[in-house]
Specification:
By secondary structure, the protein is α+β, with helices and mostly antiparallel strands. The protein folds into two domains: 230 residues, FAD/NAD(P)-binding domain (3-Layer(bba) Sandwich); 122 residues, D-Amino Acid Oxidase, subunit A, domain 2 (D-Amino Acid Oxidase, Chain A, domain 2), CATH 3.30.9.10. It is built from twelve helices and 20 strands. An eight-stranded mixed beta sheet has the order 6-5-14-15-16-13-17-20, sandwiched between helices. A six-stranded mixed beta sheet has the order 8-2-1-12-19-18, covered by helices on one side. Strands 3-7-4 form a three-stranded antiparallel beta sheet. A hairpin with a 2-residue loop joins strand 18 and strand 19. The longest helix is centred in the last third of the chain and has 28 residues. The protein binds arabino-flavin-adenine dinucleotide and P-hydroxybenzoic acid (PHB). Arabino-flavin-adenine dinucleotide (FAS) binds next to helix 1 and helix 9.
């Protein structure tokens, strides 16, 4: 099999790039290890930056997002029950975010791929990357007893944190930066009316909590839990009781509870792999970087990678200009690290750290006090939350 761009990973990063390139006449093949149902069964991001929403529209996949997604111009931060609103619309110069689940946008991307007869191959096994430094790399995968070879010009590693692409870069070339947080997020999805029209990030002595949503009939809630906890340790009732304890009383009193339709624990880590290019391999999204979800930067960091790669590939194929490809890693990492900083800052300010000394706990309080006392601090939060420019 031959193609111009072989994309490993059928998550949002891989699908978005495949769709954008196809619209410009550039051939791609997407290789996905899981079934489509499995990929669409994942519950992940919920908040889209302005830039991501624009990319969805450019990819001709934005219609349902525009019809069903919610535009949010602010969110709330509570501190042991004292709640204040963050007006991101005012402090970002009129920008906002779209609340629309990653599951839904991934579905939209798959449907667009189908409409254009895009090649997405599911249930591939043993994907291997070959000759990445040669003129023409190739990728192989196993289909039952057969080994299938795909010859291509470029390989895109959009295969997430556990995929083979990053691991194909020699250890003497790749540098990894990682910070693991001493807690995770226990998330619950429930067919209930969201407790608030806007997100609530709740700092509390018992631990962090987040009230989010997917629609007016589908709520998404999280509570910080120790890394030693498992989903089995938490019944629905225990989850709702603990969530209420961490919310302001007026919010807790109107919390509508119901059976969890999804319940999972995500560990929190900050991770960056450099460089994001090795020969004709380009890493994008979670394959290259991971953030704690506190700042809602995970999926949105993937968006700028895809934007840069898309324009770099257009330059190469349509103009014979490789400057975008040459600059990709440095340009992508510059924005990735700013998202890392913001995610670390939000996480550090809002969570309880078991080993924090008194000085650290007091500093967290001061960070919050400074934020709500300074227009400059609020503008900094807002410009990061709506998304720094691509
Ligand atoms: P993905 O991991 O989504 O996709 C990679 C794809 O590659 C997967 O479909 C995988 O099956 C496939 N793959 C892996 N190995 C392969 C192989 N060997 N061969 C072929 N295919 C292979 N971000 C937020 O902004 N907010 C959140 O609340 C949030 N919550 C999250 C919760 C969890 C549990 C996780 C893991 C992530 C969360 N994220 C969140 C981050 C998440 O949204 C990612 O940023 C987003 O999925 C990135 O998309 P991709 O780069 O496409 O990676
Ligand atoms: C979510 O709705 O899943 C969500 C929203 C905002 C975050 C993290 C997760 O910061």
């Amino acid at each position: 099999m031959k193609t111009q761009v072989c994309i490993i990973g059928g998550g949002p990063s891989g699908l978005m790039l495949s769709q954008l390139l196809h619209l410009k006449g550039i051939d791609t093949v997407v290789l996905e290890r899981q079934s489509r149902a499995y990929v669409l069964g994942r519950i992940r991001a919920g908040v889209l930056e302005h830039g991501f929403a624009e990319l969805m529209r450019e990819a001709q996949c934005g219609e349902r997002m525009d019809n069903e997604g919610e535009i949010h111009g602010g969110f709330h931060i509570s501190n042991n029950g004292d709640m204040k609103r963050v007006d991101i619309n005012k402090y970002s110069g009129g920008n906002s975010v779209v609340v629309y689940g990653q599951t839904e946008l991934t579905r939209d991307l798959y449907e667009a791929r189908d409409r254009m007869n895009g090649i997405v191959i599911h249930n591939v096994e043993d994907v291997k990357l070959h000759d990445l430094k040669a003129e023409k790399p190739h990728v192989t995968y196993r289909d039952g007893d057969d080994i299938i070879r795909i010859d291509c010009d470029y390989v895109i590693g959009a295969d997430g944190f556990h995929g083979p692409s990053r691991k194909s870069i020699p250890s003497d070339v790749l540098k990894e930066y990682e910070k693991v947080y001493p807690f995770g997020w226990l998330g619950v999805l429930s067919r209930t009316k969201p407790v608030s029209d806007e997100l609530i990030y709740a700092k509390h002595d018992r631990g962090f909590a987040l009230c989010s949503l997917r629609s007016q009939v589908l709520s998404r809630y999280y509570i910080q839990v120790p890394l030693s906890d498992t989903v089995e340790d938490w019944s629905d009732d225990e989850f709702w009781t603990e969530l209420r304890r961490r919310l302001p009383q007026e919010v807790a009193d109107k919390l509508e509870t119901g059976p969890s339709i999804e319940k999972s624990i995500a560990p929190l880590r900050s991770f960056v792999a450099e460089p994001m290019r090795y020969g004709n391999l380009f890493l994008a999204g979670d394959a290259a970087h991971i953030v704690p979800p506190t700042g809602a930067r995970g999926l949105n960091s993937a968006a700028s990678d895809i934007y840069y790669l898309y324009h770099a590939m257009l330059g190469h194929y349509l103009k014979g200009d490789d400057s975008g490809l040459e600059a990709y890693s440095q340009k992508a990492l510059a924005r990735v690290w700013k998202a890392q900083r913001f995610s670390w800052w939000m996480t550090s300010m809002l969570h309880t750290f078991p080993d924090n000394i008194e000085y650290d706990r007091r500093l967290q309080e001061i960070e919050m006090e400074y934020l709500f006392s300074s227009e400059a601090a609020m503008s900094s939060l807002a410009e990061n939350y709506v998304g720094l420019p691509f």
